Amino acid sequence: MSEATIKTPSIFKTYLVFTKFRLSFLVILSALSGYLFAGGKDWLEITYLMLGGTLVTGASNGANQIWERDLDKIMNRTNRRPLPTGQMQLKEAYIVVILFLVIGTSLLYLINLKSALLGLLAFVSYVFVYTPLKQITPWAVFVGAFPGAIPPFLGAIAATNSFGFIPGILFFVQFTWQFPHFWAIAWVLYDDYKKAGFSLLPSKTGKDKASAFQIMAYSLALIPFSLMPWILGWTGNITLIAASLLGIWFFYLAYKLYYSCETADARKLMFASFVYLPIIQFIYVFDRTDRFVELLKSLS
Known about the structure:
Layout: H1 3-7, H2 11-18, H3 21-37, H4 43-67, H5 69-72, H6 82-85, H7 90-111, H8 113-133, H9 140-148, H10 150-160, H11 165-188, H12 190-195, H13 209-226, H14 228-231, H15 237-260, H16 263-286, H17 290-299
Helix pairs in contact: 3-4, 3-10, 3-16, 4-7, 4-8, 7-8, 8-9, 8-10, 9-11, 10-11, 11-13, 11-16, 13-15, 15-16
């Protein structure tokens, strides 16, 4: 086997990188938690949700790479992506995005119309609003938090086929989580982002106490917000204990970043954010109270 053959990734791996499959998987877990929390239990709907959500998310990630293909060449973390390296041609990238979006939206439509529309909304807002704003203003993070918080919202609506308080609370928890999560990433990748003209930390001067304070503030806000399902009687005391402990741990890491302003502490917070969200969401699922389940049945 030649050296060139060894270095050339398979088409399968190329597509995984192009659609950011690992990120897509986390997004779909979030949607699944929303579906299960809202009382959904149809395996066919779960299949449509998982496959459709994965494809729409993959289309969003692929479209983002098409939009930023020239910028990706500049940054160390992205210059090995399929478009900058030539592993995928632009025409092929467009075809993949369109096919993924059409098939994924169609699968969500098989659940209900609202789910399909939410999937399209997430795609459009992420690709055509958030992505171009990244080079213009740090407010892009605020804009991007909306499509970023849609997955559990979509999952709950896939189960209930109605916009209501339950999907809204799940949306709000993930919306708040987006800020310390993404700002921690922006802190770790600050120098790389700067090469491409991205300035995504909340402070104009970047990695400073002002940015760290906002990260810490949103992390603190997550504690009471994450307890909303318990406060509303939707979950039991396991949520009270687990959400409080997870929230205090997450806030502690954010406080350490505020105290030190060191990239190492931002990296710890970044990895913690990936762990925090799926744990808290599935605690909600497994800690639903009987009263809440009955309430859902009466609303269906």
